Amino acid sequence: MSEFSDLSDRLSRHAREIKKNALAIQSSTPGPFARAVLSTELGDLIRDADPSEIGLFTITRGSSKTLSHDKEAQNASGNVQISRVEFHGATPLRKSMTRKERGKESQPEDLAKAALKYIDKYPQVNFKPRTQARLEDIIDAVDETRHNIQELNENLRQAEIAEAPSVKGMLDEEELRIRELKVQIAEYKKKKEILTAKKARMRLPSPTKKMAVESARKTPLSEVDRADRAEDEFWNTPSNKARTFHLNDNLLMDEEAEFGDTSIASLASPIPTSRSGFASQFDEDRQGAPSPPPPESPTQRIRVPPRSQMPTQDAVLPPPKKQEAHLDEKTPVPETDIAQEPKKTKPHINVETERIVVKMWSTVGEILMPGNNFGVAPGKPPEAKATLSHLNYLSSLTPSPASPIQSSSSVSAATRANAPPTAQQILTATMLFTLLTAPNHSLPLNKVKEVLTAKASTSGSAAMVSSHSRILYGCVAKRLLKIERGSGEQIVKFDI
C-alpha cells in the first residue's frame, strides 16, 4: 500500500506541472497562406495572366444578401469565387454549337508554335527533354502535309482537264458506231424481206404445173402405170423415219391367240376360223370372177364388182360339222370353271410420267434396250405410252439364267441388240412397270422385293433369286429410284 500511494502522488505532481507549463504558452493565430509566403519564393512565379489562360477560368460572386459597394469589403467577406469554364460540347440532351457560335478553329501549326512559345518563355518549368523536338517535328510534318495536299489537288485538277476531251471523244466514237450498226440492221432487214418474198414465190406452184397436176388427176391410170407408180413410191421412200425406233401397241408379241372356249366341257372344240382375203381371192379366180384392182392409196378400199358380174345363184353353204353342232348345243357350264382374268390397271400418263420416262431412258436405257442410239441420234426417246408398252412386254417374259455368250464383255453392240432379253433386263422392266402402275408411283420396299423375288423364282435359278436385290440398288445407284426412310416402313419412289 505504501508503494501505491507513492506512485499516485508522483502522478499527480507531474500532471500539475504539465498544466502549469501549458498555461504559460501564449496562443498565436497565424493568418492565411503563412506557410506559402514564408516557405515559397512567390516572386518568381508572379506574372501577368495570358488571355488564353483567363479564358479557362471565370469569376463568380457568391450569394450574399448584404450588398457592399466597397471592393475591399466584398473581397474580405469571401463572396468572390474562381470557377472553371464549362464545356459546351454536344451531348445527347443538348444540340451542338453551330460554326458561327464556335468561332474560328485553330490550325495545328498554330497550336504547336504556341506550345514552343511557352517552353521558351518558362524555362524553369521542368518539361520533358523531347517535348521541344517533338513539337518541331510536328510543325515540319504539318508543313509537308499541306504541301503534299496542294500538289495532289493540282495533279487532280490537271487529270480532270486531260480526261475531259478523251471521254467526249469516246462518246463520239460510240455514237458513230451505233449509227453504223443501225445502217447495217436496216440493210439486213431489207435482205431478209427479199429472201422471204423469194421463198414465198418458190413455194407457190406455177400455173402450168397446176394444170399438169390437175390433168394427171383427171386422167385414169392404166394397170402398168399404177404398177410403175407403186414401184417408184417404194424406191423413193425416205429412210430417215426408219432409223428411229418407235414402239407402238401393234407388236407381234402383243398378239393374243384365240383358243375358243377353254373350259372343261369343250376342250377339243376350236373356234371357227375366218377365211382370209387371200383365200377368198383365190376362190374367185378359180370360179372365173375378175379380181379387184390394187388400191391407189393406203386409204382406198377394195372395189366391189358390179351386180351383173356376180353369180345369180345363191351360194349353198356346207352342212355344219359335228364339232360346230356341238358348239351350238347349250351345255350348262359351271361358273367356277370359267377363268375370270383380273383387270390390269393401266398407268395414268401425265407430266410426271413423262418426266419419269425421260429420266428412265437417260439412266437405264442401255439396260431396257441394249444397243439403242437415243443418246446420239437426232430423234427423241420413245414417249411414255410406247415405253410402258415396251416395259409391259418385257415384264411378261420369263427370265432365264445368263449364258456365257450373253455375259461375255466381248460381245458387240449389234449382237446384244439382237440377243433375247436378259434376266437383268426383264427384272428391271418388271420393277419399273410395277412402280409406274402403282398409286403415286411408289411402293413399300418389302412389296418391291416380293415382286422381284416372285419374278426371279420363275426362272428356277437359286442364284438369281438370291441376287435380285442388285436390280433395285442398281437403279438407286444411278439415281433413278430413291428409298425414303420415314416413320414406319421404307418407301421406294422415283428420284425426280
From TrEMBL:
Keyword terms: Coiled coil
Chain intervals with Basic and acidic residues compositional bias: 98-109, 321-332
Residue ranges, annotated region (Disordered): 89-109, 205-232, 268-347
Which branch of life, at top level?
Eukaryota
UniProt key word Coiled coil: yes
Q: Which residues form a coiled coil?
A: 135-198
- Cite the record's Polar residues compositional bias ranges: 268-279
Please report the name of this protein according to its UniProt entry: Uncharacterized protein
Species of the source:
Dendrothele bispora (strain CBS 962.96)
